[in-house]
Amino acid sequence: xxxxxxxxxxxxxxxxxxxxxxxxxxxxxxxxxxxxxxxxxxxxxxxxxxxxxxxxxxxxxxxxxxxxxxxxxxxxxxxxxxxxxxxxxxxxxxxxxxxxxxxxxxxxxxxxxxxxxxxxxxxxxxxxxxxxxxxxxxxxxxxxxxxxxxxxxxx
Length: 155
What we know:
This protein has helices spanning 16-27, 33-40, 42-50, 53-56, 76-80, 109-119, 135-141, 149-152, and strands spanning 3-9, 59-63, 67-73, 98-104, 123-127. The chain is α/β, with parallel strands linked by helices. The longest helix is centred in the first third of the chain and has 12 residues, at 16-27. The radius of gyration is 17 Å and the shape is globular.
């Protein structure tokens, strides 16, 4: 499966609502049914962006083309981000059949799931702690090197 990723600057450079609008722009042209659906999901999506869940676990759009993974950048990374890297895609990601999955903390799964279900069956929520098995944990700890001192002492 082909996967394309984008990292979108968020808080404090943009509000969580502004960040969701940028993401919606990337995924669906204005005036399309998909855009109407994404606009209706602004509340739950902005909440998850504000909680920085989407910094470690991606928003995933699947459909007829490559799988898209959208991450948000927060804090200093958001301030230093090159906005020119927030490029659109050479195709309309929401053309045809598509589904969007938002990551949420375990505490928010039920509430966000109910909110998204009321909007569209194309929208779903998943436990951010289960994303890609170990991949989320490894992304979170990727910047902290682990040194095995026992191995260093071996001849």
